[in-house]
């Protein structure tokens, strides 16, 4: 994992701090589970606590963050989701090895795949284990993209090798 991945998330955390109060306060009346939280930082603290006792609250908060992101498309909600799921995304990014993409491209691939999964996540159809499903779908999308890039590079290399081979006319005597 590159240091730029951590740096990117440091910048994203700062984005959450900038417009947090107004956007978060506007969402509170729409979602009961936000009522006990005074700020988005309280939500992020709960999301960061991996104790089994907080599973149901983290599930509800994840669903709220996704719903707000899908409904409003405000960058704030995407940033909040990224910060909340940084540990998962960091572990995923750390698992990717190879030379298919450079480090910065891999960082961006993990982030963009996660946000693509969140954008189309079917909240109405999937009613439980949201975090698990986000992780699985993000992993699948990331590894599919990496495999596709590796395949494309292999094909390109094979074409390059074929172009270098001397041409032999099939009917020469």
Secondary structure elements and their pairing?
Blueprint: H1 3-18, H2 20-27, H3 40-48, H4 55-72, H5 75-84, H6 86-95, H7 103-120, H8 130-164
Helix pairs in contact: 1-5, 4-5, 7-8
Outline of the structure:
The chain is mainly α and 173 residues long. It is 72% helix and 0% strand.
Protein described:
The mean pLDDT is 87. 72% of the residues lie in helices and 0% in strands. With 173 residues, the protein is mostly helical. The longest helix has 35 residues, at 130-164. The chain has helices spanning 3-18, 20-27, 40-48, 55-72, 75-84, 86-95, 103-120, 130-164.
User: Total number of helical segments?
Assistant: 8
Question: Rg from C-alpha positions?
Answer: 21 Å
Give the overall average pLDDT.
Answer: 87
- Percent of residues in helices comes to over 70%
* Topology, number of strands: 0
First-residue to last-residue Cα separation: 58 Å
Low-confidence stretches: none
Strand content: under 5%
Largest sheet: none
Q: What is the structural class?
A: mainly alpha
- Name the shape in a single word: elongated
- SSE string, helices as H and strands as E: HHHHHHHH
List its salient traits.
mainly alpha; 173 residues
């Amino acid at each position: 994992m590159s240091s730029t991945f951590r740096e990117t998330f440091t910048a994203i955390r700062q984005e959450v701090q900038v417009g947090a109060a107004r956007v978060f306060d506007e969402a509170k009346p729409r979602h009961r589970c936000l009522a006990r939280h005074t700020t988005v930082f309280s939500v992020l603290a709960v999301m960061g606590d991996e104790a089994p006792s907080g599973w149901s609250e983290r599930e509800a908060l994840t669903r709220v963050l996704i719903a707000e992101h899908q409904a409003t498309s405000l960058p704030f909600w995407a940033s909040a989701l990224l910060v909340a799921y940084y540990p998962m995304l960091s572990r995923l990014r750390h698992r990717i090895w190879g030379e298919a993409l450079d480090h910065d491209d891999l960082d961006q691939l993990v982030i963009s795949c996660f946000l693509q999964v969140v954008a189309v996540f079917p909240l109405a159809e999937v009613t439980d284990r949201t975090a698990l499903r986000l992780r699985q779908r993000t992993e699948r999308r990331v590894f599919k993209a990496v495999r596709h890039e590796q395949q494309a590079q292999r094909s390109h290399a094979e074409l390059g090798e074929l172009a270098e081979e001397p041409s032999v006319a099939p009917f020469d005597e």
